[in-house]
Specification:
The chain contains six helices and eight strands. With about 375 residues, it is α+β, with helices and mostly antiparallel strands. Among the domains are: about 120 residues; about 90 residues, Methane Monooxygenase Hydroxylase, Chain G, domain 1, CATH 1.20.58.1690.
Length: about 375
């Protein structure tokens, strides 16, 4: 052994250098030889330990996987059941809501129907009240006369009248289909071939105690044709203190000197005047309205009733029946009339081109004159 500090050789086992006094490092002991012989059997015995460890790891992994799969399975079943239960609850809730909504909707509908019925009842009550007010107004306009009292007053005006002052005026007053109205035609001239003709539809005014008219018509009848004077006249007929029938026409200031005397019932004239609206004595008002176009000027010779008859005789030629009793009675009196078709079943397409045009002409004239 040698001293690492001074290099002097020292005896084995010495701890310090005798030369320099440095501590000597002892050499490492040689490894002891194994007394047991190494054989194949002892070297191969460690391998099965590694194999057992792998199996254990695999088993652990499989176990974990199985546990996870089982947990997942039960989780799916659990949450699936919860989902199904939740879905069932949702469906039930929806059905309950639908049922509740349906019930509420039915209630709303019932309430709406009740409101409609109530509104209709109020509307009917309003109509009744309005009709009552309107009737009261009408009653007040006639000074609340009864029907029989009013008819008695109007009857005093009905008849054929002659002017005792001029000896040139003839007047016809007849009842209209409306019991509150009368038709008045006045002819003034040297003859009935050349005269002035006034035509009125009048109503009784209790306040003024007279027959009052508006929209009166006046025109000249001459050999050369008719000339209109006015178509919107206003005036009245009344009895004076001596019981004479007098006439005031505000538009032309005509008739104020006339003193009419009753000479008979309507149409009772000895002069053959052919009073234009005395349709009961005429087969047709417009005989050829089925074969030519009627001019509006031809209607100026007719009062409201005459226009109504002229329009409906176009239908009557085909046997049409009428709901209006006055019209039905009128046409029943005509020899040419043969009622065969109810009003609701009558087809206007059967009319020819002249008849369709003439119905329209007469209707427009009636509206213009305030008859409809």
């Amino acid at each position: 052994m040698f001293c690492e500090n001074c290099g002097k050789q020292m005896p084995d086992g010495a701890k310090f250098c005798t030369e320099c006094g440095a501590e000597l490092k002892q050499p490492a002991p040689a490894p002891a030889a194994s007394s047991a012989p190494v054989n194949a059997a002892s070297s191969g015995a460690a391998k099965p330990k590694k194999k057992n460890t792998a199996v254990i790891v695999i088993c652990i992994v499989l176990g974990v996987l199985i546990l996870m799969a089982a947990g997942l399975f039960f989780a799916i079943r659990f949450f699936g059941r919860m989902a199904r239960e939740a879905y069932s609850e949702i469906v039930e809730t929806q059905e309950e809501l639908i049922d509740d909504f349906s019930d509420e909707a039915e209630d709303v509908i019932d309430e709406a129907e009740d409101l409609v019925d109530e509104a209709e009842d109020h509307a009917e009550d309003f109509d009744d009240e309005w009709e009552g007010i309107f009737d009261n107004e009408n009653d007040s306009s006639s000074n609340e006369l009864s029907r029989s009292e009013l008819d008695g007053i109007i009857d005093e005006y009905i008849g054929s009248w002659e002017d005792s002052w001029s000896q040139r005026a003839h007047m016809e007053i007849a009842r209209a289909s409306d019991p509150d109205k009368v038709y008045i035609d006045v002819y003034w001239g040297n003859s009935f071939d050349s005269t002035t003709h006034w035509s009125f539809t009048a109503t009784y005014d209790a306040g003024e105690d007279c027959l009052s008219y508006e929209h009166g018509k006046c025109y000249d009848e001459t050999d050369n044709g008719d000339k209109k004077i006015y178509t919107d006249g206003r005036g009245q007929f009344y009895f004076d203190r001596d019981g004479n029938l007098r006439w005031d026409d505000y538009t032309e200031n005509a008739g104020d000197k006339c003193v009419f005397e009753l000479v008979g019932d309507p149409g009772d004239t000895d002069d053959g005047s052919g009073e234009l609206d005395n349709t009961d004595d005429m087969p047709y008002v417009l005989p050829d309205s089925d074969s030519r176009y009627i001019d509006e000027s031809e209607l100026d010779n007719l009062t409201e009733w005459g226009c109504k008859v002229a329009r409906n005789e176009i239908y009557a030629r085909y046997g049409r029946k009428f709901k209006d009793k006055d019209l039905q009675n009128y046409f029943d009196s005509k020899a040419w009339y043969s009622p065969s078709v109810d009003a609701k079943d009558f087809d206007e397409s059967i009319l020819n081109k002249w008849e369709k045009a003439n119905v329209l002409t007469i209707t427009q004239y009636e509206k213009k004159m305030g008859y409809r």
